[in-house]
């Protein structure tokens, strides 16, 4: 983009934004089953957007300058703590930041020279990201391949004297099942190790599913041995993006998440989050969403979500060649194919206007498609099942992706550092993923099949290059 010589009119800018968004996935209506969360209640989203705008230019850097953010954060964090077993919290930009602060607090509290954290293979990659940034080793343990839950005995065996944190999920994102929180927390506590519950997805969902009649095991800070918990409000809290809370059972541990520096002659630096300057817009949007829905609204959404998830699981099980993985307690549903290539199925569904999220195979868990059921899903669950059935039939007729001989070995053996972005873009286009400007939306079945055949480290290297190409060379 070239900076215009003179300023442009607002109407012109908004028209340009509309043009840029023309090929985006829709954020409302339920046809996109990942990334976005829709209540189906336009007035709630409108209230959040207005509050977001009102707080947009307020800077969270200095709470003494803007006392409104202190009061809003106290109310938002207090509401989360009331539902999730108490504790002392921090409002963050999302699950990754909440997790990063939890890992930092545990690392700093333990003071080990070579700290490690023990996580199930189903734990969110945000823990790997936090460990990468914070100099912590990740010790990954397998999950039961029938239930997809981590086994407490495996956690106990993986811990060492350098373990600073043990992690469980409520639920884990890939299959939507809740790890045995109480048992793992007890194992951790017996070893004197903190236990973090990643409830980024489920923290503001499971209480409402329980209220709607679902059997939800204890998972929050009320469970003995649980020392911290992350809960995203921009997921099933339905707040605008940039809203999460991390809770600590002990205020002293929360203080370990903070950062302060007085080693310079400028203004006072004390940060509760990774970010310093940040807009209070997400805080305002989260506060307004909680206020607009209230307890009754969330219970109603929980009831609708519970019904939709049950109907979806039952409907998928009736489609030839498809099977739901595990027995999810939440509203996350993952299904694999027997005789149906799920990557081809995803492309077929995308062609019909629906986005189903592909998940690659890993640690014995097969490749599958993931659906996040939200408050709006119930109204369109029959349409979704119809599309899945049609797409499965089309995928069965097309057959699985057949890769050219030697392609996987070629990609695995590439010295990606020796390729510039233009050369990598040509390589990607040769297998059907033309990422160059103007190429349109590529089918992803071939790309996903290649990625699925690669080891994790090679997948990561290829994905980094994909991102580099998407955003241009240089």
From TrEMBL:
Enzyme class: lyase
GO MF annotations in UniProt: glutamate decarboxylase activity
EC numbers: 4.1.1.15
Cofactor: pyridoxal 5'-phosphate
Entry keyword set: Lyase, Pyridoxal phosphate
Coiled-coil intervals: none
Domain of life the protein comes from: Bacteria
PANTHER family: PTHR42735, SPHINGOSINE-1-PHOSPHATE LYASE 1
Family of the protein in this entry: Belongs to the group II decarboxylase family. Sphingosine-1-phosphate lyase subfamily.
Entry protein name: Glutamate decarboxylase beta
